[in-house]
Amino acid sequence: MNIFKKTILTVLASLFIIGNVSAEKIKIGTEGAYPPWNSKDASGNLIGFEVELAQELCAIMKYECTIVEQDWDGMIPALVMRKFDAIMAGMSITAERQKTITFSQGYATEPATLAVMKGSNLEGMDTPAAINLDRSSSDVKKALKTITAALSGKTVCTQTGTIHQNFLESGDVGSVNVRTYKTQDEVNLDLTSGRCDVALAAKASFIEYAEASGKAVVTVGPNFSGGAFGGGVGVGIRQSGDDAIGKRDAKLLKDFNKAIDKARKQGIISKLAIKWFNDDVSM
Questions:
Q1: Would the pTM count as exceeding 0.85?
Q2: What three-state secondary structure class fits 83?
Q3: Computed from CA positions of residues 112, 114, 118, 121, in that sequence, does the dihedral angle turn out positive or negative?
Q4: Which of 242, 165, 173 shows the shortest CA–CA distance to 200?
Q5: How many angstroms separate the CA atoms of 26 and 45, rounded?
Q6: Which region holds residue 221: left if phi is over 0, alpha if psi is between -120 and 50, else beta?
Q7: Cα–Cα distance between 41 and 47 in angstroms, integer?
Q8: How far is the C-alpha of 36 from the C-alpha of 140, rounded, in Å?
Q9: Hey, is 68 helix, strand or coil?
Q10: Which residues contact 112 (CB under 8 A, 6 or more apart)?
Q11: Coil, helix or strand for 226?
Q12: What is the DSSP letter of 227?
């Protein structure tokens, strides 16, 4: 009888413990306006490569995650103000951003390119297929010289607060007439309406827009990487401090890095990249 009672008590104690262990709850901010990285469907639901990747990473970490929408230009301030705990919004890892927040390891690359409307005199620009601005080679210098001449006198449109704006204002392609917009959708609309001569953004965004809209948007010039374009896309997390929240942020960074490693080894990131980009942009 005593053994029976002891067994019952042990089982009840175990159930009590299990019932009181809850998953860590976090919020992840995304823009919802940067397909195929993140966007919304016809019903207003968040979809895209990063939305699905976030769900996979949270499952690996055994976190209970809520994905919330945030305007791009308020993304980092909202993270710092603790409106959410992490950013997954096609955000490239750059030295400038690392002054304010920290990043996980990169999970995908984001080749950037110029785009014009079909028939533009910028079609057929004679440059290599891709250039890395971290490499000071004669090919890179020649390509930048070609692009500088091509953009002279042109209005170049891009989304504000992005690596693309940083590049256009870096001086690498001379003094450029830059027009900035709050969202990539606005860039696309003004490019197709003729208010922009050329636009700069992630190559995948232009391809996605051209396919979805049927507009004759074509990419020109090289795929850009390195330099102002950063070192791939990662999860943005607050810089950790000595308080309880800071320690939690430090743990969150470690957990995301471990989860990204596991997702990469299991082929999850590659599979999602091919689904959303028709190309393996995983790192």
A1: no
A2: coil
A3: negative
A4: 165
A5: 19
A6: left
A7: 7
A8: 28
A9: strand
A10: 163, 164, 167, 200, 201, 202, 203, 223, 224, 225, 229
A11: coil
A12: G
Q: For residue 195, what is the DSSP state? A: S
> How confident is the model over 217-265, as pLDDT tens digits?
999 999 998 889 988 999 999 998 778 888 999 999 999 999 999 999 9
If 0-12 CB within 10 Å is exposed, 13-18 middle and 19+ buried, where does residue 9 land?
A: exposed
List residues bridging with 177 in a β-sheet. 155
Query: Under a CB-based contact definition with an 8 Å cutoff, are residues 142 and 266 in contact?
Result: no
Q: Which CB contacts under 8 angstroms, 24+ apart, belong to 4-11?
A: none
**Residue 118, Cβ neighbours under 10 Å: how many?**
10
Among residues 225, 192, 227, the alpha carbon closest in space to that of 206 is found at 192
Residue 211: pLDDT band with limits 50, 70, 90 = very high
Residues 6+ apart with CB under 8 A from 113: 200, 201, 202, 203, 206, 219, 220, 221, 222, 223, 224
